[in-house]
Amino acid sequence: MVNWANARPDSCVRTAPLFGLIALALILRVAAALWPNVHHPDAIFQYMEPAWRMLGGDGVISWEYRYGMRGQLLPVLIAGPMALGEWIDPGGSFAFFLPRIVAAICSLSIVWSAWTLGARVSSIHAVLAGFVGAIWFELVHFAPHTLGEPLATAAIIPAAVLLTRDAPSRRALAASGLLLGLGFLLRFQYAPAIGVLVALTCWRDPSRLPPLIAGGSIALAAGAAADLANGATPFAWLIENVRQNLINDRAAGFGVSPPSAYLGRFWAMWSVLIVPIVAAIWRGHRHAPALFWAALANLLFHSLIAHKEYRFIFLSVAILILLAALGSGDWTRRLRERGVRFVALAAALLWLGASLVLGMTGDMAAFWRDGAGSVRLFDRLRADDRVCGVALDGVPFHRSPGLNRLRPGTPLYLIDPDDPLARSDHYMPGYNRILAWAPARLPKGYSTVACEEEGGGKLCLFARAGGCDADAARPIAVNTVLRRLDR
């Protein structure tokens, strides 16, 4: 059995294939970034819209920001590529896509991590783990989304690889601390996993802690600076987040699930292949036990939280898949030593086939489509210089891709069935475009422009000729309605 703590890269492992795997991963992830789906509205309204507001644009302000529950670091990081995208393509879509491409590039750290973990065992393990890290459908799907979970995972896993080196240098420990601190800021609920990881890698050698803490302090200082730069008290968002979600149960209002729910989610994502995947995880966990226990700690912690979403446990998903790849590397090497020809190629093809099948069926089929229809309709609106106001009629605001996808200065209105002010003819002069579910009963003078499949229904764009009186619809401006309904 390989001693994980003292494992060294196989002397026969060449790094040349790593560059090919990174190139493959980059192609897949950039393609995913250019596909305009939205895995979860948080990617837009918790991060993209605040970044757009930092650049002087209009943005939807969700209740989390009104209550001061979100840190400013991730929006600050997104604002850079968003500004560059707007400079390259003024008024176009690149401001939306460039942050996704940057997020996708960041996820390449997982491919490097998989390769490095595998190289500590053999060349077969390196290539197979790197290949799985490059092509596995969940890793590709989540990579471009500007969410805290995949970005935190892209920081924490390479940090773990650095920590589990044999006698890591102070520089490596400081880099690991920086990445772990960044991972904490991006998804503070990953703190238990980070704690387990640090405990298992440092308890025998406490001298690792000072450079680790120094690196983490740099990340925390950056987070505090981002908060201060945007007029917020550093880390007050963390306290308010805990208060609102754990004490006031705000998150529970979005749905609750039993502790066993994530097991069902694994079945929904991996189907019958969960059996060989779990067997491979158990086989491979001995190559990186600290990562294994961190993944389990993360899974257990999130299982105890009433409101559950699959993206919350993405760190565990990524780790477990990499461990499964290492486990399959054990079996592949054993068969190769017994003279079975082309077994490494067969193993890679099996992983590829599993990824393709699972990635195009079940819940994943809906994940790939979700949000793409509304993005295409908003692209039409942005390209139309006759648009002077857009109303979401019975369409939840989170089904839109945000104000950053409209022309600057274009107001967005919300006609919400729970809003007593929504149904008044007085507001109609304020907009000349409506988004509504089909079939829709529309005011006189509107005609259908286009319809797109969205969220299991058909979302349609309707238009009328003429201009707008912005003052007429001011009471149903999207942020005014959200504030009134406390959403």
TrEMBL record:
InterPro entries: GPI_mannosylTrfase (IPR005599). GO terms for cellular component: endomembrane system. Keywords: Endoplasmic reticulum, Glycosyltransferase, Membrane, Transferase, Transmembrane, Transmembrane helix. The chain crosses the membrane at residues 12-35, 94-117, 124-143, 172-200, 259-282, 289-306, 312-331, 343-368. GO terms for molecular function: mannosyltransferase activity. The keyword Kinase does not apply. It is found in: Endomembrane system; Endoplasmic reticulum membrane. Its main location: membrane. It is a multi-pass membrane protein. The keyword DNA repair does not apply. This is 4-amino-4-deoxy-L-arabinose transferase. It comes from Sphingomonas gilva.
